[in-house]
Design a protein that fits this description.
heterodimer, A: 116 residues, mainly alpha, 40% helix, flat, B: 472 residues, alpha/beta, Amidase signature (AS) enzymes, 14 helices, Amidase (chain B), glutaminyl-tRNA synthase (glutamine-hydrolyzing) activity (chain B), Glutamyl-tRNA(Gln) amidotransferase subunit A (chain B), ATP-binding (chain B), ligase (chain B)
Chain lengths: 116, 472
């Protein structure tokens, strides 16, 4: 973390979340992270509903997990390997078949950088 | 030959086909006709794939005419949840985001069902992205319960359960991340399996929550259920979380009975249970005791944390899996997500965001281990446990749509099997009034055969599957 101030912010945020997970979600910030367009009425409804859900799940804080390892693969599979060999796959034409916009055999996307 | 298709099971239909008393084409046409007719009433299919079904049936008739070896699911009409990627058949996950998506490959389970020469009647309705416990989160309208049209069939595999209960097919596929097969099976008087995590390949199935997703199916009888698992289970090089080990015949040992088996009743699952549902399940347990099983009370002390753990892990993984829908390679853009998907994306993104990961996801994955340890401990003392599938009977359409938390609590008895990874089988265990009740038989990792053995013994005594919905 380059900026000590933002590291501090993260830490206090985490502590706040552990102390009081009922604290309101910053919907605009989270929607931006998720790249999810929301209407203002959706934001209002979700804010209330998610507060209820967070209030409910906060009961986990009562469980003592200091000596507990988090679950990995549930039945315990580790390091599943296979031979590094090419296999037949779908064609370029098939890969592009569902794309709304293509150009010379590529997916076409809207411009990402804006002109100055 | 005149056959009442509502009376058929996979086993009896397979016998008729093998003895050449009916053609696959006739059987398929009869089920397609019912599917078209009843879909207007139930809204259980998003796509009816008549062209595909007819071609598959012609192929089956040719195999039978050529006296080729007849497999146990050859020519059997199946409905497929719209979470399963099917080459050349539209696959929507019941979401507007994928309303025009035409896959160019098959899910592993679909390839295997094709190899087994089953026949695809259509793709079934569901809660969009499998988010829900009622079917009402579908972007293509809710499905109705064939036993009572004003009630929900359960969810998220709502259409699969309704399509089978209405006898428009002889089996239906489903996905179960927190109860999405078992709860609709309970609401629609069906046998529904959530296999052990990794028993059935997830490749090509639209991912909901990858550490919880189990791929299973609905049938009318326990024996039929074992037949389908024998076709779908087994390792897959396309899914590294799928367990190794050769394919197996899950009907083997199904007649073994329950004499001497120890069945545990987890105290926490019966404490606040609706009295009528409790009585129905305990009557079923008595029946198993009468057949020679030993019944004892057991305890799963972390039960009360199941739903809370689940509603952190699941939306977190949902938000990661739904991040891929960008409208560039296939499907529409992110504005087309419905309300429930948006709610879960927001919740999950929040729980995984910097500063919150330890408090939510990591914490939940630790509690998850404690819940699993409860089960491992109990299975050192008993062979299987029996508990309710749903805290309520099928509820009315609209009853819970505006209260997400109330809807999430519908999963209270089912989410633990997903968190723990163990297999669980819903078995019909009676009716309260005109509404079906189901119970879960849960066993240790990879104990599907044992679950079938217990379920089969009970089913032979009761045959609840004979009680059909009255659909004129």
């Amino acid at each position: 973390m380059k900026n000590p101030k933002s590291a501090f912010r993260l830490e206090t945020r985490s502590k706040r979340a552990i102390r009081n997970p009922k604290s309101v979600i910053d919907i605009d910030y989270v929607a931006k992270l998720a790249n999810l367009p929301l209407t203002s009425s959706e934001k209002k409804t979700f804010e209330k509903q998610l507060k209820d859900v967070l209030g409910y799940v906060s009961k986990l804080q009562k469980v003592d997990t200091r000596k507990v390892e988090p679950i990995g693969h549930i039945t315990g599979l580790v390091n599943v390997l296979r031979e590094d060999k090419t296999r037949p796959s779908i064609s370029q034409q098939e890969a592009l078949a569902n794309a709304p916009k293509t150009h010379n055999g590529f997916f076409e996307v809207d411009a990402i950088f804006e002109e100055e | 030959m005149k056959v009442d298709v509502t009376e058929l099971t996979i086993k009896s239909a397979s016998d008729l086909l093998a003895k050449k008393q009916i053609k696959a084409k006739e059987l398929t046409e009869a089920f397609l006709k019912r599917a078209y007719g009843l879909n207007k009433k139930l809204n259980c299919y998003i796509t009816i794939s008549a062209d595909v079904a007819q071609k598959q049936a012609e192929k089956v008739d040719k195999l039978i005419a050529d006296n080729q070896p007849v497999g146990p699911t050859l020519g059997i009409p199946i409905a497929v949840k719209d979470m399963f990627t099917t080459r050349g058949i539209k696959t929507t996950a019941a979401s507007r985001v994928l309303e025009n998506y035409m896959p160019v490959y098959d899910a592993t389970v679909i390839s295997r069902l094709k190899e087994a020469n089953t026949i695809f009647i259509g793709k079934t309705n569901q809660d969009a992205w499998a988010h829900g416990a009622s079917g009402e989160n579908s972007d293509f309208g809710p499905t109705k319960n064939p036993y009572d049209l004003i009630r929900v069939p359960g969810g998220s595999s709502s259409g699969s359960a309704a399509a089978l209960a209405a006898s428009t097919c002889l089996a239906a596929t489903g996905t179960d991340t927190g109860g999405s097969i078992r709860q609709p099976a309970a609401f629609c008087n069906l046998v529904g399996l959530k296999p052990t995590y990794g028993r059935v390949s997830r490749y090509g199935i639209i991912a909901m929550a990858s550490s919880l997703d189990a791929i299973g199916h609905f049938t009318k009888t326990v024996y039929d259920n074992a037949l389908i698992l024998s076709a779908t289970a087994g390792p897959d090089s396309f899914d590294a979380t799928c367990v190794q080990g050769a394919a197996s015949d899950y009907t083997q040992g199904i007649h073994g009975g329950v004499k001497g088996l120890k069945i545990g009743l987890p105290r926490e699952y019966y404490e606040n249970l609706d009295e009528k549902i409790k009585k129905t399940i305990l009557t079923a347990v008595k029946k198993l005791e009468g057949l020679g099983a030993k019944i004892e009370e057991v305890s799963l002390p972390h039960t009360e944390y199941g739903v809370a753990t689940y509603y952190i892990i699941q939306p977190s993984e949902v938000s990661a899996n739904l991040a891929r829908y960008d409208g560039i390679r296939f499907g529409r853009d992110r504005s087309k997500f419905g309300a429930e998907a948006k709610r879960r994306i927001i919740l999950g993104t929040y729980a995984l965001s910097a500063g919150y990961y330890d408090a939510f996801y990591l914490k939940a994955m630790k509690v998850r281990r404690l819940i699993r340890e409860d089960f491992l401990k109990v299975f050192r003392g008993v062979d299987v446990t029996i508990c309710p599938t749903s805290p309520t009977l099928p509820f009315c359409l609209g009853q819970k749509v505006n209260d997400p938390l109330a809807m999430y609590l519908s999963d209270i008895y089912t989410v633990t099997a997903n968190l723990v990874g163990v297999p669980s089988l819903n078995i019909p265990c009676g009716f309260i009034g005109h509404l079906p009740v189901g119970m879960q038989i849960i066993g240790p990792d990879f104990s599907e055969k044992l679950l079938y053995q217990v379920g089969y013994a009970y089913e032979q005594e009761t045959k609840w599957y004979e009680r059909k919905p009255s659909l004129a």
